[in-house]
Amino acid sequence: MTTLSFPFLRAMEKPKRSINRLETSAPLAQLPENLSAERVLEVQHYTNRLFRFTITRPASFRFRAGEFVMIGLRTADRPLMRAYSIASAPSAEALEFYSIIVPDGPLTSRLCRIKPGDEVLMARKATGTLVLDALTPATRLFLVSTGTGFAPFASILREPETYAKFKQVIVTHTCRDAAELRYSADVVNALPDDPLVGEAAAFHVMRYATCTRGSCQRRGRITDLMQSGKAFADMGIAPLSPAHDRVMICGSLGFNHDMQALLMRAGFTEGSNAAPGEFLVEKAFVG
User: Fold this and answer.
1) Going by C-beta distance under 8 Å and a sequence separation of 6 or more, which residues neighbour residue 195?
2) Which of 24, 90, 177, 268 is most exposed, with minimal Cβ within 10 Å?
3) How far apart are CA 174 and CA 188, in angstroms?
4) What is the pLDDT of residue 77?
């Protein structure tokens, strides 16, 4: 695991525009007005498939915990952009993102080579469905994810409003092997020391991690473990119920559909920004 850091730019300074190290063979396309050019501050690779990075945050940029924004790089033709969930808290000075590396992915195959000081493009407006306002009141909040789908939940776990609305937060994370669970473990383990949510998170957050391959403390798909009741038995908690639980889902397309079907069979109704409900599904993906 490699960690690289870059000092924060002064608040009043504007980053100097320069050619990104990843694109030097041709002139770069002009930057559209709806995008800003930010600088990479830190990069951390967890495996040969997964990494996190932080970039500078424009003073005017606002977002709600759980939202995503378009992130990308300049090319000779046009900016290459994809949707990325914001992993940092809405109050954070820098913006954090968590990414998978797709070997032939137009963006991630280049983005995985960024270094501190490089340019990353970002849209000026965030959006998304995984926000607290889109859920009706309840006692417990389940954040159910696979792979890099944990990213929006990193933001929600760092948001004080989460603990004001829910007495208990259960976050599940399923990956192929144990090494790919490291990011969610790091985020959850750091919560007790967070100056904004530390005290509440220390007593009210529970993490349940599983693997589908290799050696792991717990094996199996979270959908199967929930359906069989094993996941709830392992955690010593009551099964899901629309009477006192709310659920956010973020992962692969197949997983999202399976969880959505599981919840609907249990009597949950899907919510949205326009009509809050009992569960939410993120419909934006990266590649």
Assistant:
1) none
2) 24
3) 15
4) 86
Where residue 25 falls among pLDDT bands split at 50, 70, 90? low
pTM of the model: 0.88
Angle at 57 between CA 104 and CA 26, to 5 degrees: 45
Q: Which CATH number fits domain 2-123: 3.90.650.10, 3.40.1190.10, 2.40.30.10, 2.40.240.20?
A: 2.40.30.10
- pLDDT > 70 fraction of the chain, expressed in percent and rounded: 89
Q: Which residue did the predictor score with more confidence, 192 or 23? A: 192
Beta-bridge partners for 277: 135
In this structure, the strands spanning 94-100 and 168-175 are: unpaired
Residue 5 phi/psi, 5-degree rounding, is: -130, 155
Are 250 and 83 within 8 A, CB to CB?
A: no
How far apart CA 119 and CA 135 sit, in angstroms, is: 36
Best CATH choice for the domain 132-281 from the list 3.40.50.12280, 3.40.50.80, 3.40.309.10, 3.40.50.1820: 3.40.50.80
The reported pLDDT for the residue numbered 284 is: 72
